[in-house]
Design a protein that fits this description.
The chain is of the alpha/beta class and 551 residues long. The protein has 2 domains: 268 residues, Rossmann fold; 232 residues, Phosphofructokinase domain (Rossmann fold, 3-Layer(aba) Sandwich), CATH 3.40.50.460. 43% of the residues lie in helices and 15% in strands. The protein contains 21 helices and 15 strands. It has a 9-stranded mixed β-sheet, with helices on both faces. The chain has a 4-stranded parallel β-sheet with strand order 9-10-8-11, sandwiched between helices. A hairpin with a 2-residue loop joins β14 and β15. α3 packs parallel to α18 and α9 crosses α19. It is globular, with a radius of gyration of 24 Å. 49% of the residues are buried. The model has no long low-confidence stretch (mean pLDDT 95). The structure holds 1,6-di-O-phosphono-beta-D-fructofuranose. The site of 1,6-di-O-phosphono-beta-D-fructofuranose has 14 residues, from loops.
Length: 551
Amino acid sequence: MDNSPLQKARYAYTPKVPKILSRDVRKIGAKLGGETAAPSDQAELKDLFPKTYGMPSLEFVPGENPAAGERRAVGVILSGGPAAGGHNVIAGLFDGLKAGNRDSRLIGFLGGPSGILDDQSIEITAEIVERHRNTGGFDMIGSGRTKLGTEEQFKKAAAVCRKHGIGALVIIGGDDSNTNAAILAEYFRQTGEPVTVVGVPKTIDGDLKNEQIATSFGFDTATKTYAELIGNVERDANSSKKYWHFIKLMGRSASHIALECALLTRPNVAIISEEVERDQATLNQIAGDIAEVVAARAERGENFGVALIPEGLVEFIPEIKRLIAELNTLLAAHSAAFAGLAGPEEQRAWVAKSLTTESAKAFASLPATIQRQLLMDRDPHGNVQVSRIETEKLLSEMAEAKLAELEKAGRYNGKFSTLHHFFGYEGRCAFPSNFDADYCYALGCTAFLLIASGRSGYMSAIAHLDRPAGEWVPGGVPITMMMNLERRHGEMKPVIRKALVDLAGKPFAAFAASRKEWAVSTSYLFPGAIQYFGPAEVCDQPTMTLKLEHS
Ligand code: FBP
């Protein structure tokens, strides 16, 4: 395969790393903090994780660690949706491992967690790593969404590790995958399996974060990519002055992506799902609010605009959330009967008569295309595949109906020509921004240091990400510290708490303070494409969200 000029230039890029990571790996020690505790459900979690609950958090400091020089084999798994920087995590891990001992081996399991269950793997060589440094995508070893959660699967994983002599496993994934990493670490400890399990925080959605993990990797590149596209669309809208663009943005659940993109581009409308839920807003109200903005702009002669819609929105609108919950239970309980129905018409009719009156009403109020999309297959974690629901079209159609009402009432006299976009997959595999390239490389090196210190059940963590990379502090956080109990499929389960947009936080406050002005006036901001080479104030800036949260 040919390489583009940028790809060649990126191969030559050396990630900036925290100062401590420039040392010989055998000269890096772990400074332990105090015992840790989960934010809630401590007693239950202690019972569920007797071997790994309460472990101390740690940071890496100058010290002695001869074990870092041992020869070892480490396995690595990429899990879930791609996020820019995954290859650099592997590169950092590889470099750390080889710096410790040239004869150590890195085994990449193919196609995600199923790779370890089916014993599908490759040895990741220096040549493979060189071809992937600072590039986007997960194509080095592939990824998948198989859930690694049952005892039978753990036994298989243990057997495969034994077969390859693997003494440590690095799982690069989101909240669900890291939850499973913690459960696997506990299982290995309890059964005496000599395999250290380390997690790495990945997801473009930005919802795997807490006091210890400032952000997941991939969020920076994805939001910068979408913001570039949104800025371009805004400029086009302001040039041709004839379209309203409805842009759905990825983010399965939380609206961090929509919020960050709004801060970077100042659109006329940006919906934040968490606010919709707090205000218990209905679909009708949301469409009504959009129509009001369209009408206000039309009064100024501006029959164009840009609206950002988070893809997870439908699950935050109370009536639709209830409907989805009922559909999930219904489809899980009667999957065979449902599969036996002939075509979408019969499926819709069957569902409509099986729902409660309230949900049947909500279901009936939706266009047929959306009804069909709500009935599509769930992902392996039982979630509705929100990226396949065309919320942007639903809202623009509903806003159009509201505008017709406003027109009748003499309150609107404009044009409403709509175009729809979905920015999602475009942002997951871009060349990682310098921030993600640096952050991921540091996460990979740190994962190795955790392995070399025998720290199982930890997540690789880099502190002070709002500062220049040289001042970052690598360390580890026990995953059980991020967990709580949540109801999943009718049972209370230990899971990492998903971070939704904090409506009392600074990023949302910054948005809320300006959105009224952005709604009516044309205040667009054009961030432009990600810059990889040039001054630090252009190339090395973390997200606004991160900066505001740490300001
Ligand atoms: P992860 O949580 O695995 O990082 O994936 C996030 C995501 O990109 C969501 O934003 C999106 O809803 C989903 O993956 C799409 O999944 P798929 O790649 O299976 O279509």
